[in-house]
Amino acid sequence: MNKLPIDLRLLIRTLGVRFYQENIGFFFVLLGFGLGILRPTEHIYLIQATVGSAYVLGIVLIAWGLFCLKAIVFTSQQLEAPGYEWIRETTLLPLLRQIVVWMWVMLLQCLLPTIYVGIIVFQAIYYQQWPSVALGAVFLLIVYTLGIWRAIHKTYHPGTGRTTSMFTLRLNRWMVKPVYLWFGIALLKQYPVSLLLTKLLSLGLLLITAQLYMHDTYDYRLLTVTVLASGFSHTMLMYRYHHFQHISLLFFRNLPISLTQRFSTNLLTVALILLPEFAVLLRQFGPEVGWVTAGWHIPLLISFLMVIYHSRLLQVIPEEKFFQWLFYTFVIYFLLIMFSIPPLLLLLTNFFVAAALFRIHYYHHEPSLPE
User: Which residues make Cβ contacts (< 8 Å) with residue 2, sequence separation at least 6?
Assistant: First the structure.
């Protein structure tokens, strides 16, 4: 790292490493699924099926394309964020130098898709599937070209985002939205790619587990572990919800609203975010594990997100250590489930901890305001 030019080192630390830090929950679940659930032979079969079928290859490329789009959107948002104006000084570099610098940043952010699609291309060459080779190469070319162009364009033309139309402003004034809908609307407007990827991963885990129940016999612990992984895959969304409520809506704390109403608003907001998971749990797992078992996993999933969100109120956990702390929490939950701790006990404990954290620390929490 020290042998790299100073401009490249700074961008890697600011945009590359930060991208992984802010999405650690997503990457942890993704790697846990890829390395913990799928065996090496299954990875080989999946890649072979991808090479031999244009339909499967298209699905894989769309999924990884959304991942790369998430990285591109992240870079654009960082270039607009306060405190990152110095990145725009890269416009003083020669154009070729800018392209090389941003290509390295894209390579770090899109390392997983690049490796996976690269393996597919090499397998396609081995089996002489030349259309698959062409599709993989064109995919990488488009992704890197789009990412580099978007970053350079943002450095030359900052503040060129979308503006709200007069019709939308009038519609917002006419239709009063409940408080528990505010964050969901903000997610759809500001972080649609992050929301989509989180839902793809969460629902994918649940659907794969449902297929396992259909073809073999498992106890409730497999479903509980899947619900745990699905909940922790929403870590980044809960992080954004904390930022939304305590920084974007800083005035909300001074309104004459009781703690019970505030906690209920958080509960409803989390429940609305998890509506797709509720439908899958009832539809896919009800006939297999029983409607009662599938039903009480719904509040259990809510409780995991409530613990993640309200743990941000703890001042004793530095922001840079928060995701590391969540990793240890995930491991503890996993061990408790494997040792057959009753899920009902986990459910009650989670809600008790979330409510206690909220009651004790809500008015004492001092959010880190952007400079």
Answer: 9
Q: Compute the distance between CA of residue 106 and CA of residue 232 in angstroms, rounded to an integer.
A: 26
CA dist 84 and 81 (Å) reads 6
Is the pTM for the entire model greater than 0.90? no
Question: Dihedral of the CA atoms 358, 205, 190, 368 (nearest 10)?
Answer: 30
CB-based burial of residue 116 (10 Å sphere; 0-12 exposed, 13-18 middle, 19+ buried)?
buried
Q: In angstroms, rounded to a whole number, what is the distance separating the alpha carbons of residues 325 and 319?
A: 10
What does the block give as tokens for 286?
Answer: 């009800």
DSSP code per residue over 40-51: HHHHHHHHHHHH
pLDDT tens profile 349-359 = 999 999 999 99
Q: Give which of 126, 112, 113 is closest to 48, Cα–Cα.
A: 126
Separation between Cα atoms, residue 365 and residue 307, nearest integer Å: 16
Cβ contacts of residue 136 below 8 Å, gap of 6+? 57, 61, 117, 118, 120, 121, 124
Q: Is 235 exposed, middle or buried (0-12, 13-18, 19+ CB in 10 A)?
A: buried
Q: What 3-state class would DSSP assign to 162?
A: coil
Query: pLDDT at residue 7 above 70?
Result: no
CA of residue 80 relative to chain centroid, distance: 20
> In terms of Cα–Cα distance, which of 65, 75, 59 is closest to 19?
75
Distance CA 329, CA 327 (A): 5
